[in-house]
Write a structure and sequence with these properties.
By secondary structure, this protein is α+β, with helices and mostly antiparallel strands. The chain has one domain: HIT family, subunit A. The chain contains three helices and five strands, in the order H-E-E-E-H-E-E-H. It has a five-stranded antiparallel β-sheet, with helices on one face. The longest helix is centred in the middle third of the chain and has 22 residues. The model has no long low-confidence stretch (mean pLDDT 95). The protein binds 2'-deoxyguanosine-5'-monophosphate. The site of 2'-deoxyguanosine-5'-monophosphate has 14 residues, from strand 2.
Amino acid sequence: MEDCIFCKIVKGEILSHKIYEDDLVYAFLDVKPVSPGHILVIPKDHHENIFDCPENILSQIIKVSKKIAQLLKDKLGVEAVNIFNNSGGVAGQDVFHLHFHVVPRSKKDNMKMGFIGKKDLNINLEEIKNKLVLES
Ligand code: DGP
């Protein structure tokens, strides 16, 4: 993808603060961190989001995210992490090259994730479950 910022980062055409690299995955500091040590873990190949990314690459992204979470604990002393992905514009995806955020958290950071359970949606859980059962 010629115009993709993250493809350019992988190729070294745009500077990044690299934390980790292997055959499939690249990890680097987010340029707009929500806390110190906010890292993005991405596939080296261009995949837009979770819908078009092969499972073996997703597995590697999650394995690397775990190692990075441990690294943040060991080296920066972070207490906890949020790991999340926005897949699709409506879900808040701004850069359309798959990325998982690994965000360091501490008791003092006063951050709240933006999802609050709603009691008044009148959702029929049984109806939804019947549409969604996934065969293993
Ligand atoms: P999202 O909203 O989930 O698509 O997150 C995109 C993230 O990518 C956002 O936290 C800022 C980061 N970002 C965007 N452009 C660059 C860049 O050129 N370099 C780095 N390091 N991060 C970037």
